[in-house]
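Example 9 (inverse folding). The structure is encoded as follows.
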C-alpha cells in the first residue's frame, strides 16, 4: 500500500495551510493520526496475544516473544509512514517510494525473527522422545514462513509486477536455470514427501543407499547419517526417497538370528535343550514372541542349529553378542563339540609316495 497517493483531502481548506516550507497542517494531522493509530493497534494486539498465550495450546507460536515482535513491527511501520506523510520519505527509488522499501524490509526482517523464535521455542518445549520429529516440523515451519514473507515483501515494495516481467523476458535464462536447479527442486520435494512418509527420524539406526549408521540430521535438501565407524555421510533427499530404507529400530522388538554348528556325533536334542535354557536365563531375551531353536540343515562338517530370539530393538546388538558368547560357553560345559570344518580328499588314481633312505639307512 502507498499512503502518499491519497493526499487530496489533506490539502483542502485549512488543512492545506503551509506551516513550514512545503509542510502543511494536513500532513501533520495525517502523520499524527497514523502514529497514534499504529501505537494503539500495536498495544491492543500485544495485550490480546499475551492473554491468548495463557490459554492456547499453540504456545510455540503465540507467546510473549511473538507479541513483542509484532508490537515492534507495527510501531516501526507506523513511524515509517508517519515520516512518509510528513514528506521526509517521499523520494522514489526504482519506481517505488522509500517508505515502501523500508516497510518491505521490516516485514521480511520481523517475519524472519518470528519464524526463528517460533522454531527455537517449538524445539525447546518438546519432550526428548518427540524431539527428532519436532525438529523436522520446526524447520519446515521456518522455511514456509520465510518464503511467504519474501514474496509478501516483494509485493509491498511494488516489485511483483516487474519481477514477473523480468522473468518472462528472461525465458531462456529461466530454462537454463531450471535444468541447473532441477536437482535442488527434486531434493526439496523429496524432503517434504519424506516428512509426511516418516520412514526414519533423527537417532534411528538405518541402512540406506549403501550406508549403515545412525540418522544425525534431517534437512530440507539432504539427510546426514553418522556411520558406525564415525563418518558423516550426506545423502540427497531425492536419492534417499528413491532408495530402499531399512529402519533397524522402527519397531520395539527385533529378532536375533544366529546359527550354531555341532558335531554329527552329538545329540542334537540335547544341544537344543542347552541353548533354550541359556536363552531363558538371559533377561533381555523376550519371552513373547517365544525363542525358537531347531535343526536347520545338515552341513558339510556339522549339524546346523538355528537360534531365533527376540530382543528390544535398542538392545539388539548387545543381546546378539551375549547370545553368541553364552551359547558357546554352555555347549562347552555340556561337552558338546563345535567342530572345525572337515574335508575328505579323494584322488582319481592311487597316490604314490616316494621314500628315500639316508646315509644311515633310515627312511625319510
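The amino acid assigned to each position is listed next.
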Amino acid at each position: 500500500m502507498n499512503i502518499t497517493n491519497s493526499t487530496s483531502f489533506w490539502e483542502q481548506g485549512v488543512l492545506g495551510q503551509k506551516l513550514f516550507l512545503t509542510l502543511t497542517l494536513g500532513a501533520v494531522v495525517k502523520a499524527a493520526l497514523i502514529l497514534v493509530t499504529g501505537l494503539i493497534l500495536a498495544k491492543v494486539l500485544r495485550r490480546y496475544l499475551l492473554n491468548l498465550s495463557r490459554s492456547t495450546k499453540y504456545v510455540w507460536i503465540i507467546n510473549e516473544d511473538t507479541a513483542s515482535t509484532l508490537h515492534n513491527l507495527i510501531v516501526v511501520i507506523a513511524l515509517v509512514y508517519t515520516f512518509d506523510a510528513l514528506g521526509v520519505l517521499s523520494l522514489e527509488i526504482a519506481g517505488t517510494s522509500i517508505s515502501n522499501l523500508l516497510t518491505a524490509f521490516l516485514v521480511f526482517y520481523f517475519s524472519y525473527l518470528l519464524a526463528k523464535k517460533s522454531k527455537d521455542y517449538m524445539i525447546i518445549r518438546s519432550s526428548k522422545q518427540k524431539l527428532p520429529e519436532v525438529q523436522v516440523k520446526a524447520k519446515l515451519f521456518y522455511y514456509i514462513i520465510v518464503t511467504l514473507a519474501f514474496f509478501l515483501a516483494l509485493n509491498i515494495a511494488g516489485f511483483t509486477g516487474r519481477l514477473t516481467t523480468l522473468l518472462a523476458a528472461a525465458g531462456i535464462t529461466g530454462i537454463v536455470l531450471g535444468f541447473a536447479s532441477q536437482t535442488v527442486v527434486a531434493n526439496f520435494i523429496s524432503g517434504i514427501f519424506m516428512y509426511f512418509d516418516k520412514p526414519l527420524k533423527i537417532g534411528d539406526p538405518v541402512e540406506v543407499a549403501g550406508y549403515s549408521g545412525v540418522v544425525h540430521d534431517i534437512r530440507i535438501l539432504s539427510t546426514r547419517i553418522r556411520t558406525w565407524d564415525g563418518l558423516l555421510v550426506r545423502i540427497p533427499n531425492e536419492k534417499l526417497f528413491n532408495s530402499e530404507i531399512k529402519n533397524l529400530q522402527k519397531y520395539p522388538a527385533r529378532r536375533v538370528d544366529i546359527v550354531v554348528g555341532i558335531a554329527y556325533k552329538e545329540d542334537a536334542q540335547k544341544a537344543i535343550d542347552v541353548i533354550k535354557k541359556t536363552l531363558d536365563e538371559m533377561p533381555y531375551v523376550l519371552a513373547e514372541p517365544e525363542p525358537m531353536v531347531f535343526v536347520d540343515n545338515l552341513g558339510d562338517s556339522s549339524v546346523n542349529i538355528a537360534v531365533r530370539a527376540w530382543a528390544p530393538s535398542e538392545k539388539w546388538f548387545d543381546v546378539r553378542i551375549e547370545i553368541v558368547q553364552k551359547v558357546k560357553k554352555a555347549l562347552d560345559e555340556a561337552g558338546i563339540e563345535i567342530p572345525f570344518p572337515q574335508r575328505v580328499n579323494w584322488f582319481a588314481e592311487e597316490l604314490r609316495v616316494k621314500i628315500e633312505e639316508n646315509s644311515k639307512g633310515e627312511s625319510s
